Amino acid sequence: MNENIKVMIVDDHDMVRKGLTAYLSTESEIEIVGEASSGNEAVRVFETLKPEVILMDLIMEDGDGIDATKQILSKDPSKKIIILTSFYDDEQVFPALESGAMSYLLKTASSEEIIRAIQKAHYGKTVIDGKVAQKLVAGLHKHPEPFDRLTVREKEVLKLIAEGKNNSEIATTLFIGIKTVKTHVSSILSKLEVADRTQAAIYAYQNHLFNE
Amino acid sequence: MNENIKVMIVDDHDMVRKGLTAYLSTESEIEIVGEASSGNEAVRVFETLKPEVILMDLIMEDGDGIDATKQILSKDPSKKIIILTSFYDDEQVFPALESGAMSYLLKTASSEEIIRAIQKAHYGKTVIDGKVAQKLVAGLHKHPEPFDRLTVREKEVLKLIAEGKNNSEIATTLFIGIKTVKTHVSSILSKLEVADRTQAAIYAYQNHLFNE
DNA sequence: AAATAGCTCCGACTTGAGGCGGAGCTAAAA
DNA sequence: TTTTAGCTCCGCCTCAAGTCGGAGCTATTT
User: Fold this and answer.
1) CB less than 7 Å from strand D: which protein residues?
2) Nucleotide nearest to B151 (CA to C1')
3) Are B88 and B132 a contacting pair, CB within 8 Å?
4) pLDDT tens digits, one per residue of B147-186
């Protein structure tokens, strides 16, 4: 494989694209065929630019990187997409890799690391940043979420508890009786292994169950 | 003022520093005298590099930008520090400007915007990104934090409520009587204008009162 | 000296929260 | 067909939660 590797950069920070270009221009094997400043723009232009490898940021104003990755791969599964982002939350890493991305790097990476990741991606090999990998295995070791043991109805009730509603308000919201609400609440408390509705609400917030 | 403006770049992303350097090298008036990859490093080296303007990222592994800004300005208040970050949360903007930073830009800014901000900073003029400014005025319009009306003791009690403790647990934790706890709780509820301890705990989480 | 604010505590009272046990209904699984 | 799981509802019970009004103490302010 002596040809150039065609690379496309997707990032909403102009200076990051500039910096990456400076990084990669030192490597004769790599050719930057284009840039995009948002996920949606990337989806629009990648078929024209025909890159083999795509460096993709995650958080962007107009169409995030995960969405863009899914859409691009659904149109052309042969594309190798490398996530290149600033963060390594569980919330970010899992969906990103599920979306079909080949590698996951952090923006603190050196130019050598990025170049190597591009080369490996070209051959179909995955590169995961060390810190991200740690989070990944930590995430797998995590307790089999007691939240998932809740029924649909119980999750609805928990959501309303986390909004600060009392039992009668929940009852009128869900068009059911107060007694039924109490049944659900009791079930929720025992499944989450908490003592009262306040601790249930706290549980919901600490586990970011209902956004924020 | 025909001399060069001496600029220092503080960012933990190598590629961002590269990109910024590429940005600013087009402008003959600006001279980059050094870089730092963390807040603590910036504090250590700025006296040697003698920059006039410092471009400062906020979130960094080893010493965040707000801390670094405070420390640098306490040693030399004449430095002009421009915050250059990806986000514009209320939680970020206020402490950043309180720390004494002169300007607040987003990383989506163009090279012209950054160059202009550096020039203005040099003359002591502030530049705030439009989106950030919006958040700012929205923040000022916000209710004059009812949380601040709580007494020290009440804040302690609220913290324990947000940890899921009941009244008797709070009593033993603070070495006071249950009746006293109830008094504090009632006072907290009326000051925060919420109905019960669950809503108080939710209030604490939504306003990020006790980290996370 | 007097007023104010904060922390402490008390008794009495009302009510919502939650546990326990039981039950009917429906839909899916064994 | 029988069993199981989920949603619904009931009564009874206990107790924590929260309100109201009152009070003593200290430190600061006026």
Assistant:
1) A 151-154, 174, 176-177, 179-180, 182-184, 196; B 166-168, 182-183, 185-186, 189-190, 196-198
2) C6
3) yes
4) 778 888 888 899 999 999 999 999 998 889 888 999 999 9
